[in-house]
């Protein structure tokens, strides 16, 4: 018999949003108010409102073309909003470059895997550790002691992160030689290397078989628990979404049509209609 995953209940907070009980007395890691973006005359996202607690796993779902990845691109300032406010840890992200958003604590993976495929697995993870490097270009060029000290620390940290997914033995493999599922995991490891407070996962289960997806579900929970970070994921695999998320936001044609717990979303007639269409009368 399948058991429902244990979840902390979502409770209302003064701002009007819902959060896990553990997070209600803390500043939201993410708060979005009236977010919107236009491409020419097309409104791609409109009046998007959301808050994410510091240890929440949330899902952003919707039919193809609903605007989900556009929301991720807005959160990382790869696309500048036309209107609205995005707050990370209480700080406004307006005018920030994507690398500055990363330094603020937001890391992401991509719908289409973006690894440095001719570099090793270890080197890919070390790229994510760039914020922790404490040596100058000159020290690197002339191979001064601080360069070697930092590289040694980075190697150890990268291997530690790889061990989270049991990938430490693949450290010297070329990233492009990894099986598809392992490439997906490596991209998550590289994102974790930036030491985020919010991890954005764009279709992390795409292309995975059922056993890999089940393992991913367990690892998303472990990431939240062991790194004490929030996770926001876009995913079409509803078993994964319903099995791992505390709360879910449903997007359709760029607008939120439903919010709530997985149980609420599963039985919402508006959500069912968006996915399956309206029955003929």
Describe this structure in words.
This protein is an alpha/beta fold and 281 residues long. The protein has two domains: 10-105 and 196-281, Rossmann fold (3-Layer(aba) Sandwich), CATH 3.40.50; 118-195, no CATH class. Helix content is 35%, strand content 23%. The protein has ten helices and twelve strands. It has helices at 68-75, 98-103, 121-128, 137-141, 145-164, 180-192, 210-227, 238-244, 262-266, 269-276; strands at 10-12, 18-20, 30-39, 42-52, 57-61, 83-88, 91-92, 106-108, 198-202, 230-234, 247-252, 255-260. It has a six-stranded mixed beta sheet with strand order 8-9-10-5-11-12, with helices on both faces. A hairpin with a 5-residue loop joins β1 and β2. The chain is globular and about 60 Å long. The two termini are 37 Å apart.
């Amino acid at each position: 018999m399948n058991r429902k995953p244990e979840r902390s209940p979502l409770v209302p907070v003064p701002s009007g949003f819902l959060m896990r009980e553990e997070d209600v007395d803390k500043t939201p890691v993410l708060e979005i108010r009236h977010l919107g973006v236009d491409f020419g005359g097309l409104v791609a996202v409109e009046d998007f409102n959301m808050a994410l607690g510091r240890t929440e796993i949330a899902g952003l779902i919707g039919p193809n073309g609903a605007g989900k990845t556009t929301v991720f691109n807005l959160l990382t300032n790869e696309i500048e909003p036309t209107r609205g406010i995005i707050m990370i840890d209480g700080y406004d992200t307006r005018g920030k470059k994507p690398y500055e958003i990363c330094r603020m604590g937001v890391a992401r993976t991509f719908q289409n895997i973006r690894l440095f495929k001719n570099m090793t697995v270890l080197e890919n993870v070390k790229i994510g550790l760039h914020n922790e490097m404490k040596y100058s270009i000159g020290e690197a060029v002339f191979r001064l002691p601080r360069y070697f000290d930092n590289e040694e620390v980075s190697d150890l940290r990268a291997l530690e992160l790889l061990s989270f997914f049991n990938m430490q033995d693949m450290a010297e493999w070329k990233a492009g030689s990894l099986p598809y599922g392992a490439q997906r995991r490596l991209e998550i490891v590289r994102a974790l290397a930036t030491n985020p407070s919010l991890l954005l996962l764009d279709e992390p289960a795409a292309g995975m078989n059922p056993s890999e997806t089940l393992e991913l579900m367990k690892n998303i929970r472990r990431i939240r628990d062991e790194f004490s970070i929030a996770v926001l994921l876009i995913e079409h695999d509803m078993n994964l979404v319903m099995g791992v998320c505390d709360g879910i936001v449903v997007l359709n044609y760029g607008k939120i049509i439903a919010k709530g717990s997985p149980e609420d979303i599963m039985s919402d007639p508006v959500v069912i209609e968006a996915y399956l269409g309206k029955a003929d009368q």
